[in-house]
Amino acid sequence: MPGLDDERLRTLLRRPAVPADLAARLRANLAEQRRQARRRLRARALAAALAGALAAGLWLALPAQRQPAPLVEAALRHLEEERSLEGVRTGPPLRWLARAGLTLPPGAHLLLTKNCVVAGVLVRHLRLVLADGTVTEVLVETGGRWQGRLPSRGRTGGRAWRVAARGAVTVLAFGPPEASEALAGLGRALLHGPARPRHPNDSQPHLEEA
Amino acid sequence: MRLGRHALMERLIERHHAALYRHALWMTGDPHLADDLVQETYHEAWKGLGRLRAERAGLAWLLTILRRRLARHLASGDALGRAEPLEIAAPETRAAGDDEDTALMLDLAAALQRLAPAQREILLLHALHGLSYREIARLLDIPIGTVMSRIARARRALETALAGPAPGGRVVPLPVGRRR
């Protein structure tokens, strides 16, 4: 068969019959692959959701296991250094609180208020006795330099701590381990208390005014 | 209009499965292996469908996948690597009046099996699929000039093989379809 031209060669090469069911089998394979891909996708989504839920659960359930933020560690060191201080005043505390837009919770009174430097940032250090007698230490930063740098809560060095923020103002409140919820309430009250500022002489009889 | 993945895959099956099957069949001489290779090719194509840039490039893209599969079989010493020449017998199902064509096809099959796989492949790309020199050059990643010279050499080798005596060897049934 020498001299086979291109057209003849093409015709002969196309002569072998293709299995009649090949296309159908290929489509069936394709459908199965799609089903498997969907199953894999669902399984991945489920696994991701479970992992997320587990991580969130751990985060909420084991706050004591979390590594405290460096800022919290610095704040705790500062509180330890100033544990013995009481009644040190650097200015009219209520006026400062009002300027910062903060409100003392009803029934609370101040034991200490002073300006301090924590981790290179000037903050206000308050020691408060809440209405139920719980003594808390509060650091207030008003310049936005703690903004977004702190986890919302935790337990470190035998103390519970809570963070509350409003705009550039960040409140970091420390207290006994069982007072975590009270600290949350304190943060809210300081930041979002009654809009009408209280007069120092009518509702805060224990307040030490400079 | 852009097709969805599934619709595109359906169209690639519809348009190219026969060409891929024949390519694999002429390369291997084994209908069952050819069938498997085509299925493997589409399986891989579905997984990598995102890499297909345009539907019109579908055949070349599928051939690239099929060539990888064929090369794997070649490397493993499967059908392609057999040194023995292949003799193809016509099936009982061939249509009446096809005798001359069938005889020619059997001679062609025997001759093709005597070519080196690379020569067989370039002939199929050109003659079976009708790819241009440029398309073949892109597919094989070689210059167009090399494509032209390789096709010319493969054609000469085929002529020589067709003119020579038919070799003996194992019998593999090859289904023959009606000429269209």
**Could you state the order of secondary-structure elements of chain A as H and E?**
HHHHEEEEEEH
Average pLDDT across residues of chain A?
79
Strand fraction of chain A equals: 15-25%
Classify the secondary structure makeup of chain A into a structural class. alpha+beta
Give the overall average pLDDT of chain B. Answer: 80
End-to-end separation of chain A in angstroms reads 117 Å
Poorly predicted spans of chain B: 79-97, 169-173
Q: Poorly predicted ranges of chain A (pLDDT <50, ≥5 residues)?
A: 195-199, 201-210
In total, how many beta strands of chain A? 6
Order of strands, widest sheet of chain A: 1-2-3-6-5-4
Strands side by side in the biggest sheet of chain B = 1-2
The total of beta strands of chain B comes to: 2
Helix content of chain B: 55-70%
Roughly what percent helix of chain A? 25-40%
Query: Given the structure, what is the number of helices of chain A?
Result: 5
Helix count of chain B equals 7
Radius of gyration of chain B, whole Å = 17 Å
Biggest sheet descriptor of chain A: 6 strands, antiparallel
Explain the overall architecture.
The complex is a heterodimer of chains A (210) and B (180). Chain A is an alpha+beta fold and 210 residues long. Chain A contains five helices and six strands. In chain B, helix 1 packs across helix 3, helix 4 packs across helix 7 and helix 6 packs across helix 7. The two termini of chain B are 32 Å apart. At the A-B interface, helix 1 and helix 2 of A face helix 1, helix 2, helix 4, helix 5 and helix 7 of B.
Index terms:
heterodimer, A: 210 residues, alpha+beta, six-stranded antiparallel β-sheet, 5 helices, 6 strands, 21% strand, rod-shaped, disordered C terminus, B: 180 residues, mainly alpha, two-stranded parallel ribbon, 64% helix
